[in-house]
Amino acid sequence: MPILPDYETAETLFQEYQLDVPRGTFDKLQIYADFLVDYNQHVNLTAITDGNEILRKHFLDSFLLYSHAGNYFPDSAKVLDIGSGAGFPGVPLALLCPDFEITLLDSLGKRITFLELLRQKLGCSYSAVHGRAEEFAKLPDYRECFDVVTARAVASLPMLAEFSLPYVKTGGFWISMKGKEDISPAISAIQKLGGKLEQTISYRLPDGDERTLYIIKKISPAPTKYPRKFAQIKQKPL
Fold first, then answer.
1. Distances (CA, A) of 180 to 53, 74, 85, 126
2. Which residue in 124, 121, 71, 116 sits closest to 95, CA to CA?
3. What's the pLDDT at 9?
4. Which residues of the chain are modeled with pLDDT < 70?
5. Cis peptide before 227 (omega within 30 of 0)
6. Are residues 165 and 194 in contact, defined by beta-carbon separation less than 8 angstroms?
7. H or E element in which residue 79 lies
8. What's the confidence (pLDDT) of residue 154?
9. Which helix (H) or strand (E) holds 149?
């Protein structure tokens, strides 16, 4: 029995948010959901295992990133998703925008194994990389190389700014997907790392949960001393 509701039910939900999700893409979401719930019995990837909840809180939420902020993604965008976990929002974005070059970064190897197996099942294109955000940001192939960097509720905004902005090329964007969190404490960190707040977009999921996209434009290179080691970032956020 498939995990997700049928296509007609999902299509009605997507249309409420002005989203056009073709049947072929939905079929891949069904494969994704089935594999996620099955794999989750052995490896803890998500607390959400109900099909309706997966549809709304994972898939719809991921699609709404692009629906609301798609104008910040250039054609054939090079995208980094930090702390991908079970693949949100990076994998749905790869299904929705197959021309994007998407890299999923996570610090736990078991999650990367899942994402690599999922890629084979879905037949879509993305890279899954095992590493820590504060370490990979020092590497020439990653530092300030991405058009867009996404992160979905990985850490507090001041910490997340230091993890994320060093990856964004000048003129690119960091998009943080949050619930209710005030960005004011992160403004100083954003400025120190070469960014500025471009736009704040708020919306609600069908159950009423609040979501906010904080869109930060990279206006100058991040100082080379950032990001610091994790212990320093956690102990004394910028």
1. 19, 28, 21, 30
2. 124
3. 93
4. none
5. yes
6. yes
7. strand 78-82
8. 73
9. strand 146-152
To the nearest 10 degrees (0 to 180), the angle between helices 23-40 and 7-16 is: 110
Predicted confidence at residue 152, as pLDDT, reads 87
**What are the tokens at 2?**
């498939």
Residue 102 tokens, joined: 């998407």
- DSSP H/E element including 168: strand 168-178
Q: Which residue is associated with the tokens 């809180």?
A: 57
Cα separation, 126 vs 136, in Å, equals: 17
Q: Return the closest-CA partner of residue 135 out of 13, 226, 34, 7.
A: 226
Collect all residues with Cβ–Cβ distance below 8 Å to 49 and sequence separation of at least 6: 37, 40
Look up residue 105 and give its amino acid. Answer: L
Taking each helix axis from N to C terminus, what angle separates 23-40 and 109-122, rounded to the nearest 10 degrees? 140
Q: Are 71 and 43 in contact (CB under 8 A)?
A: no
- How many helices (DSSP H) and strands (DSSP E) are in the chain? 10, 7
How far is 146 from 168, CA to CA, in rounded Å?
5
CATH class of the domain whose range is 7-235: alpha beta
Compute the residue count for the chain. Answer: 238
Q: Which long-range contacts (CB under 8 A, 24 or more apart) does 155-160 make?
A: 155/83, 156/181, 156/185, 156/186, 156/237, 157/181, 157/183, 157/185, 157/186, 157/189, 157/214, 158/185, 158/186, 158/188, 158/189, 158/237, 158/238, 159/233, 159/234, 159/237, 160/82, 160/186
